[in-house]
Amino acid sequence: MVTRFLADTATLTGRSMKHVTRSPDTIITTAVMPIAIMLLFVYVFGGAIDTGPEAASGSYVDYMLPGVLLITVAMGVSYTAFRLFTDVQGGIFDRFDSMPIARSSALWAHVLTSLAANLTSLVLVVGVALLMGFQTGAGGLDWLAVAGVLVLFTLALTWVAVVAGLSARTVEGASVFSYPLIFLPFVSSAFVPTTSMPGPVRWFAENQPVTSIVDTVRALFAGRPVDGSTWTALAWCVGILVLAHAFAMVTYRRKSA
Amino acid sequence: MSIAPAADPAIRVQGLRKAYGELGVLRGVGFEVARGSIFALLGSNGAGKTTAVRILSTLLRADSGTASVNGFDVATRPGRVRESISLTGQFAAVDGILTGRENLVLVARLRHLRNPGRVADELLARFSLDGAGGRKASTYSGGMRRRLDIAMSLIGNPSIVFLDEPTTGLDPQARIEVWRSVQEMARGGTTVLLTTQHLQEAEELADRIAILHRGRILVEGTLEDLRRLLPPARVEHVEKQPSLEDVFLALVGEDGVDEVGVDDGAGEVGGGERAAGSGTRGRR
Ligand SMILES: Nc1ncnc2c1ncn2[C@@H]1O[C@H](COP(=O)(O)OP(=O)(O)O)[C@@H](O)[C@H]1O
Ligand SMILES: [Mg+2]
């Protein structure tokens, strides 16, 4: 059973990866907007933004990169939802579901493809950041930890995308869920310190998931020891992941009600 | 028709009901399909054909009633049902981004066959797609796409095949090709349940025909059985008139002409590679 699940998932992942490699523009598009945001903030707004003592040592690129990486993932998963939606609409999912293949292999294939596509976009964005002068004191282990956090975050948002892709009725509906996700980093510690924000906004910013994740990644890049925000960040990621996964499974089953 | 009196039918449906909200689509449907036979579920648009097929292929749950396929209950043993069947849905479920050959290899892999590449090549040849196997399926005409779709359903020799309106939207030649594949399947011992809106299609292919109307099976039987339901006197001279289809085929020729992409053929006119049989192998 398990080997069958792995084999079918591998086969189906190979198939949906072809959808990515045959339209590499989706990876580029995913990376272009975060890169544009990065350029805009660094070369246009950056001079006027006071990031406070926290980032006094580094440049503004160093400060904002963690948030930009999260935006990249939020952009990327909208393509995941789109690919899934197309499969459901096109009847391919019906074909898979009427075949004796391991249950949920079809979903996992999209999840793994999403992970691969997003990691590629993330590498592109980090590459551009390095060209723009991004500097980090992070060692190998820190980089690994950053990758781990981003993988977890991508998985969590991917399962949200699965729910959207399975339940949407139109193409637009499949990707609209990502807009608020793209917007969230702007109301967080990603671009300006939350201490600069007025009361209620500040409260929201400090208690929404992005801030803890951004703070964690920023600390890792700076080579600082991780603190309480790390556990908050992990709890958010795992919580969203578990919840979205459960919702996705229910949505998937309900399709045959 | 020598259908062995098999111990149990390939498909048995009893008192099947399904409603979408207030809309009762199936209201007590029952029929049996003998092993190795072709059974046509005939009904107009919205009659509930797709709903019935989706229930039989484990994609949808019935509200009540029972259905068993290959001896397995669709509700309680869906896994075993899936091992016995294959579904060609109403709209061709091919992956447009993959080539025709890749589509076939994909299904062969999912069926855990030993030599997916060879299976794919054999089917490409059998369905006159060998010249187009390397092209993205999104560039196929409606008829080619449907042939690929059916070829994908034959992989792994399922004993029961469901074809939901396999020829809707196809031009006459493509339709005849699909008919031939269906007949070939049945000759090989496969049980075929197909749905159709075309009387002529049911007439041409089916051993038994059931007419589904307003959620119930109105009549069920062989073509002869159904014919006997009407007074015999009316058939006379209408019969000799060639149908428009006869005229079309006579003028155009059954084999010598490029296929015209009738429906969503992605703006291309015809798979020229089919027309000349195995002669042209040109890839584009
Ligand atoms: N998911 C659905 N939700 C609501 N109504 C549906 C759904 N699927 C089909 N129907 C309705 O059920 C009726 C039968 O549909 P269907 O089984 O597709 O008929 P057929 O295949 O014979 O054309 C139609 O009136 C159709 O509009
Ligand atoms: Mg239908």
Relative helix content of chain B: 25-40%
Query: What is the element string of chain B, with H for helices and E for strands?
Result: EEEHEEHEHHHEHEHEEHHH
Oligomer: heterodimer
Strand content of chain B: 15-25%
Distance between the termini of chain A: 25 Å
Residue stretches of chain B low in confidence (pLDDT < 50, at least 5 long) are 1-6, 256-284
Q: Which class best fits the helix and strand makeup of chain A?
A: mainly alpha
Q: State the secondary-structure class of chain B.
A: alpha/beta
Question: Could you name the CATH homologous superfamily of the domain at 11-91 and 186-256 in chain B?
Answer: P-loop containing nucleotide triphosphate hydrolases
The amount of beta strand of chain A, in percent, is under 5%
Shape of chain A: elongated
Largest interface summary: A-B, 23 and 30 residues
Low-confidence stretches of chain A: none
CATH class of the domain at 11-91 and 186-256 in chain B: Alpha Beta
Q: In this structure, how is the largest beta sheet of chain A organized?
A: none
**Could you tell me the mean pLDDT of chain B?**
82
Q: Tell me roughly what share of residues is in helical segments of chain A.
A: over 70%
Largest sheet of chain B: 6 strands, mixed
Query: How many DSSP-defined strands of chain A?
Result: 0
Which short descriptors sum up this protein?
heterodimer; A: 257 residues; mainly alpha; 11 helices; B: 284 residues; alpha/beta; Rossmann fold; six-stranded mixed beta sheet; four-stranded antiparallel beta sheet; 10 helices; 21% strand; globular; disordered N terminus; disordered C terminus; binds adenosine-5'-diphosphate; binds magnesium ion
Question: What would you say this structure looks like, in words?
Answer:
The complex is a heterodimer of chains A (257) and B (284). Chain A has 257 residues and is mostly helical. Chain A has one domain (2-256). In chain A, 75% of the residues lie in helices and 0% in strands. Chain A has helices at 2-21, 25-45, 60-89, 92-97, 105-131, 140-167, 171-175, 178-183, 199-207, 209-221, 228-254. In chain A, α6 (140-167) runs parallel beside α11 and α10 (209-221) crosses α11 (228-254). The relative contact order of chain A is 0.14. The model of chain A has no long low-confidence stretch (mean pLDDT 90). With 284 residues, chain B is an alpha/beta fold. Chain B has a domain at 11-91 and 186-256: P-loop containing nucleotide triphosphate hydrolases (Rossmann fold, 3-Layer(aba) Sandwich). In chain B, 32% of the residues lie in helices and 21% in strands. In chain B, the strands form 2 sheets. Chain B has a 6-stranded mixed β-sheet with strand order 6-7-8-3-9-10, sandwiched between helices. In chain B, strands 2-1-4-5 form a 4-stranded antiparallel β-sheet, with helices on one face. Chain B is globular. The chains are: A mainly alpha (257), B alpha/beta (284). Chain A binds chain B through residues 4, 7-8, 11-12, 15, 18-19, 22-23, 90-92, 94-101, 256-257, and chain B through 54, 57-61, 79, 82-83, 85-87, 89-98, 102, 106-107, 109-112, 152. Bound molecules: adenosine-5'-diphosphate and magnesium ion (MG). Magnesium ion is lined by residues 49-50, 90, 164-165 of chain B.
